[in-house]
Design brief:
This protein is mainly alpha-helical. 66% of the residues lie in helices and 1% in strands. It contains 15 helices and 2 strands. Strands 1-2 form a two-stranded antiparallel sheet.
């Protein structure tokens, strides 16, 4: 790997509280191999886009439909730089002006999911799908909302619909597997193995599936993260994905402390637009809630 991108990650061993000695994995070796990158900075082009869109919204004589489009476009830019509240305001403004705005419903549903406002998320995605049944990402996002809302069995239908649209996409396969695992489907790993056969070996994310299937070790997975990467942005995006799925991997092994560390690493990349970044924060929020709940009941 190019040394320009590689930074040694020092982790205080005591914070892992026994992960290194766990008989189920060799976590300490994997952690010692970790790489991180400088968090992505806000692109100046995004700042300029926000300024220009704001100017047009405030000054131009345009129709309500055109203004709705501008609010939506500005909301997308706000979202891409992590300004979620401002993005939600613009998506709501867009919908008030254009009540059949499918993409605005989809984005609002994502934000409601992140806020754990699951019923509102379901309603937003239902609206998007009613208006545009072919909107495949609304199925993904509703599936994710159902998954985090404690309705894993229902989420499987949406993930199945999403996966069928592109059956060789490793990420679609992974979300299906996570849903089936949460629903205690005993055939989840078998289904994962069968689906993995459709993914080309050259697709790097197949490594994630191979890790979940036990075909490669954590150390082997981490050692391959920088292969084929030639920019800080590309490495940030890959690490955002990799560390999120490593978090889910350890979560499935009931190693929540190590899972939390990986979710934090995914967040540290600042790749706000990625599904993995969005839900790494939600994963941590849910973990903290469980800790509080356990403390109250003890």
């Amino acid at each position: 790997m190019n040394k320009f991108f590689k930074v040694a990650l020092v982790i205080v061993i005591s914070s892992l509280q026994g992960c290194a000695s766990s008989p189920e994995n060799d976590a300490s070796l994997a952690m010692n191999q970790l790489i991180i990158v400088e968090p992505l900075a806000i692109n100046y082009k995004s700042e300029i886009a926000i300024a220009r869109l704001t100017d047009v919204i405030q000054r131009a004589e345009i129709t309500d439909a055109q203004r709705a489009e501008l609010y939506y476009d500005r909301g997308v830019v706000y979202d891409s730089v992590g300004l979620r509240s401002l993005a939600r305001l613009d998506f709501n403004r867009a919908l008030r002006l254009k009540p059949d705005f499918v993409d605005a419903y989809n984005f609002l549903g994502i934000h409601f999911t992140q806020l754990q406002e699951f019923n509102q998320a379901y309603e937003a995605f239902d609206s998007a799908i009613d208006l545009a049944p072919e909107h495949e990402y609304a199925y993904l996002n509703r599936g994710i909302a159902l998954y985090y809302g404690g309705r894993a069995e229902l989420s499987i239908d949406d993930f199945s619909t999403f996966q069928q649209r592109k059956s060789n996409d490793p990420y679609r396969i992974l979300w299906m597997y996570l849903a089936e695992s949460a629903a205690n489907n005993l055939n989840a790993k078998t289904s994962l193995k069968v689906a993995a056969e459709q993914v080309e070996e050259s697709v790097w994310a197949k490594n994630i599936i191979q890790l979940y299937l036990g075909e490669i070790t954590e150390q082997e997975f981490i050692s391959q993260l920088s292969i084929g990467v030639n920019s800080n942005k590309a490495l940030s995006e890959r690490l955002c994905e990799a560390y999120f799925y490593l978090g889910k991997y350890y979560q499935l092994k009931d190693n929540n402390e190590l899972a939390a560390n990986f979710f934090k690493l995914a967040l540290s990349t600042n790749v706000y637009e990625f599904v993995e970044h969005r839900y790494a924060k939600l994963e941590l929020d849910l973990m903290r809630q469980e800790i509080v709940k356990a403390a109250k009941s003890s």
